[in-house]
Amino acid sequence: xxxxxxQNMEKYLEIKSLYVNDNIIQKIENINLFSKLKSLFxxxxxxxxxxxxxxxxxLEVLYLSNNHITRIENLNNLKLLSNxxxxxxxxxxxxxxxxxxDNQNLxxxxxxxxxxxxxxxxxxxxxxxxxxxxxxxxxxxxxVNKIKNYRKRLLFEMPNLTYIDD
Length: 166
Known about the structure:
Blueprint: E1 17-19, E2 39-41, E3 61-63, E4 83-85, E5 108-110, H1 120-128, E6 135-137, H2 142-146, H3 150-157, E7 163-164
Parallel strand pairs: 1-2, 2-3, 3-4, 4-5, 5-6, 6-7
């Protein structure tokens, strides 16, 4: 714990899971050679931007909760991504959520405890276009209170959902 960079990992290029959570990492870097990586845990760091993941084409699980991320971006090469946790960040613009449309294998999306206060229709529209989506966390965003009959609406629009928030 206490690492501020991901570095000196050349010996471990075959790893499938990388846990660098609970550190003081500010930038996602030096992981582009981990082509077999399936799970990346970067929660509880100081990351401000989603970047440096372009070559991780086998990535299925990405945890970036409790960072300082303001925008959903640079996930379009992660075609196998099924579980994305961006909870407890500073995401506010619902238009960024449309970036997730390139990730058609997403089953679980956690955007809880962000700063999303508008754009409920945009969020629902994006979620409806993700055929594998089963689990949605959006609680502790002001937008939830602005979507009339939030839970019923999500279930009506996405009958394959199995879990919403709590």
